[in-house]
Amino acid sequence: MGLDVSGDPVLSLNGVCRDFGQVRVLHSVDFALHAGAVHALIGENGAGKSTCMKILGGYLSASDGAVRHNGQDTVFASAQQAESDGVVMIHQEFNLAEQLSVEQNIFLGRELRKGVFLDHAQMRKQTQDLLDRLETRVDPAARVEDISVSDKQMVEIAKALSRNARVLIMDEPTAVLTNREAAVLFRQIERLRADGVAILYTSHKLDEIARLADMITVLRDGRVVAHGAGAEFDEDRMARDMVGRDLTNLYPDHDGPVGQEPVLEVENLTVPGLVEGLSFNLAPGEVLGFAGLVGSGRTEAMEGLMGLRAATGTIRRNGQPVTIRRMSDATQVGLGYLTEDRKGRGLILSQGMRPNLTLLALRKFVRRLIDRRAEEAALDTAITEFDIRAPHRDVAVGNLSGGNQQKLLLAKTMLNAPEIVIIDEPTRGIDIGTKQQIYAFIRTLAEQGRAVIVISSEMAEVIGLADRVVVMRQGRKAGELTRAEISEDSIVRLAMGLDGKDYAA
Amino acid sequence: MTEQTKPRRPRLDLQVLGPIIALAVLIVIGALMNENFLGYGNITNVLSRSAFIGIIAVGMTFVITAGGLDLSVGSMAAFIAGCMILAMNALVPMMGTGWSTIFAGMAIALALGLVAGLANGLLITRARIEAFIVTLGTMGIFRSLVTWLADGGTISLDFTLRGVYRPMYYGGILGVSWPIIVFAVVAIAGEIAMRHTSFGRHCAAIGSNEQVARYSAIPVDRVRAWTYVLLGILVGIATIMYVPRLGSASSSTGVLWELEAIAAVIIGGTMLKGGFGRVWGTVVGVLILGLIDNLLNLTDLVSPYLNGAIQGVIIILAVVLQRQKKAER
Ligand SMILES: Nc1ncnc2c1ncn2[C@@H]1O[C@H](COP(=O)(O)OP(=O)(O)OP(=O)(O)O)[C@@H](O)[C@H]1O
Ligand SMILES: [Mg+2]
Predict the structure, then answer these.
(1) How far is B187 from chain A (nearest CA, A)?
(2) Membrane topology for this entry (chain A) (predicted)?
């Protein structure tokens, strides 16, 4: 830090406003990016961070105000033009052609040629170099469709790096990365900063911001509410400025009673190739955490339990054996599952909030025909109860900010009134204020006597929420920790297999 | 593409208005060019002829909305017509030449439609073969079966039976012919099913994102198979209305019906890639295609041989209009 950011900005927003239809989402926003500095843009879900970034990157136009590039008012006619002027953006959502290979994606639109033919050897070599630099062991010839989510993100980053950007805009690049991958990314960011690249960065992980940012701009409801050097902000101040109030006690107390009789017993759950002999119990009033590294089989186990994947094993509900072959069997016995992939599996992005909300519990709304009035009423309730903030009622769900999509998905799952709620990565890409709301909500569920399973890759979340933790490793249960035993250290030891003990049945 | 029902906001949407405007323009042009155009006889003629495609297109709307496609409907209609006629002829010695034979033929037509649709549906959902390939295959199969049944010629209905059956196409109640009545009933039922039942909602969900549908506890395969069964039954119904018109079936029966039905669906604003369907739009689409055909026959401005070309232009225009809605920048 302590960099000189007093020089002329490379790229800036000056009094920029943006409307979507009747709704103004940016109100006269100003901030500037300087060469060799990391500028962090933070704010709640829906504050307008992505919108600012898209305007800078040429993907959206400003409704009012100016974008200034190297001191001159600029209107990027398209993202291609911005890119050819050295402004490159990594999107919050993936922008990869799923059917093409990693290499083809990286060179998409600017393929290297030798005469009229493509220069495959050269492209292969450059791709390999980029991936090596990112310490990513993905095959350049692999189809993007077949690689993991975090590898996709690394490919996005490689693609941006290959563009030799002078300005690099990154919209939540670490939301789907593991800690190790994030660390690699940070090293690349530091290298680019040293090379004089101007970087705009956003993330809901405030420790990353504290670590990276030379400058910070805080947005709230589309307005800049705070601005200053990175050193002036600690995480508490960031959170306070973002949310507009003091945030104490991120995690709720847990002192509600936990029942004795298990409501769910899972024995020897096996999903071929992914999960081996997983057994656990769940009591009413309990929050059971599932920890483990990415790829340890937690999601697959729950999908197996819910009938979304072929699985074997014994499942008892209130002591009675039940057979679950498809998801409707699971919902029938009071199980609910909230997927980690809210855009791909959770919500229909092209539809509005009402059909999304009622899709799972549609049966409840059918009196011969679908009772639209009842659906609207349910949407009203959901909007209040889950504090869903939408620009307007008929907005396509794809245009909601990430946090509000998550709340809608939660509302959708809860509409079916499950007694056992399985929540996979409850707060991925969610702002800190909303996190607090979701944590409080999870605790309320437990206090109402329901049982909750929380899968999370965020250690703090598992520790803060769970009454008991199951740690998984390579598809098996590596161990189980009770309230008193739960600590970062004990979880990591089990997740990495440092204990040598194996509890798997 | 936002949701179809807006509680308020009377926004003038080109996607909604497009097909209706096109239909209105056609009617005005027609009325100006030929005074008989809006006459009772001509309207009845157009509607009755459109009814077969219309009934099939309503079913096709569900298939396409759920992300599928069915190329086999034209051949299926020919095959069902052939079997139905052969069966009725065979039943004459036993059941006579009355309505009982015809009802038996109708039952056979419906059953065949159901089975054919089920075959398509199961091959697509159980054997996991692309809908395009499956129905391309069954299209060839049905077409060649009917040619074989007819031995390369024509299968004709028993002469007396034909006379009894004829009113099914030419007759009606209160001056409205039976095909029009059946088409109207099917269209209204389809519109209600699409907008106000779980089945319609599920079709749209599956067509938008199959994974989301699966994770919402929707029996994806079953719903998808049902769309083909429904379409098969509707093809059966269309055939029941069609056979009394000519009283025969041959290898050229129902040729290109599949394309007309798909075209009507797309013109009506249903998305070809699935996820959003509009039955009333399909009805408008059917009427547009029927009117163009009729106009070309009534007037000598353009040769009727160019009918196909004009239909093609309209289909392409309809898809261009669908895409107009690209997000503002
Ligand atoms: N195409 C669109 N049409 C209508 N409203 C939109 C559109 N895109 C964004 N919005 C709205 O603009 C606001 C700002 O959205 P934006 O995506 O910039 O938020 P964000 O700060 O990036 O949030 P998150 O942290 O969840 O990613 C939100 O209220 C969102 O619903
Ligand atoms: Mg965003």
Answers:
(1) 17
(2) Peripheral membrane protein
CATH number of the domain that residue A129 is part of: 3.40.50.300
Whether ligand 1 lies within 6 angstroms of the CB of A48 is answered as: yes
Structure tokens at A339: 């997927």
First to last CA, chain B: 15
Residues A208 and A290 in one domain: no
Please give the Cα distance from A455 to A469 (Å, whole number): 10
Compute the distance between CA of residue A44 and CA of residue A65 in angstroms, rounded to an integer.
23
The reported pLDDT for the residue numbered B12 is 55
Q: Is the pLDDT of residue A424 over 70?
A: yes
CA B138 from centre of chain: 17
- Specify whether A283 is located in the same domain as A391: no
Q: Are residues A369 and A435 in the same domain?
A: no
**Residue A461 domain flag:** no
Tell me which of A355, A390, A416 is where a domain ends: A416
Please report the ipTM that was assigned to this predicted complex: 0.84
Tokens encoding A361: 């519990």
- Pairwise CA distance, residues B45 & A14, whole Å: 65
| Residues contacting residue A82 through CB under 8 Å, at least 6 positions apart | A56, A57, A58, A76, A88, A89
Probe target for ligand 1 pocket from A50, A392, A434, with the most ligand atoms within 8 Å of CB: A50
Closest-CA residue to B270 (of B31, B26, B49, B58): B58
Do A90 and A154 lie in one domain? The reply is yes
**Are A385 and A441 part of one and the same domain?**
no
Digitized pLDDT (tens) for each residue of chain B, 329 residues in all? 333 333 444 455 666 777 888 888 888 988 888 888 888 888 898 999 899 999 999 999 999 999 999 999 999 999 999 999 999 999 988 888 888 899 999 999 999 999 999 999 999 999 989 999 999 999 999 999 999 999 888 999 988 898 888 888 888 888 889 999 999 999 999 999 999 999 999 999 999 999 999 999 999 999 999 999 999 999 999 999 999 988 999 999 998 899 999 999 999 989 888 899 999 999 999 999 998 888 888 777 778 788 778 878 877 887 777 665 554 56
Question: By the CB < 8 Å criterion, does B7 face chain A?
Answer: yes
The answer as to whether A4 is a domain residue is: no
- Does A182 share its domain with A254? no
Q: Distance (Å, rounded) from C-alpha B76 to C-alpha A478?
A: 58
Whether residues A134 and A268 share a domain: the answer is no
Helix (H, G, I), strand (E, B) or coil at A97: coil
Q: List the one residue out of A92, A191, A177, A193 whose CA is nearest residue A136.
A: A177
Domain boundaries along the sequence of chain B: 38-256+271-277
**Distance between alpha carbon B113 and the CA centroid of its chain, in Å?**
13
CA A340 to ligand 2 center in whole angstroms: 17
The burial class, CB within 10 Å (0-12 / 13-18 / 19+), for A56 is: buried
Strand runs labelled E in A75-211: 87-90, 113-114, 117-118, 167-171, 198-202
Q: How many domains does chain A have?
A: 3
Q: Chain A 25-64, CB below 8 Å of chain B: which residues?
A: 59-61
Q: Which atom of ligand 1 is nearest to the CA of A43?
A: 21
What is the full DSSP assignment across B204-248? HHHHH-HHHHHHTT--HHHHHHHHHHHHHHHHHHHHHHHHHHHSE
Q: Is residue A352 part of a domain?
A: yes
- C-alpha to C-alpha distance for A385 and A406, rounded to whole angstroms: 13
Contact call for residues B144 and B250 (beta carbons, < 8 A): no
A238-286 per-position pLDDT tens digit: 988 988 887 777 888 877 777 788 999 999 999 998 999 999 999 999 9
Proportion of chain A in helix, strand, coil states, percent, rounded to 5: 35, 25, 40
Domain extent for A398: 339-416
Q: How far apart are CA A251 and CA A461, in angstroms?
A: 8
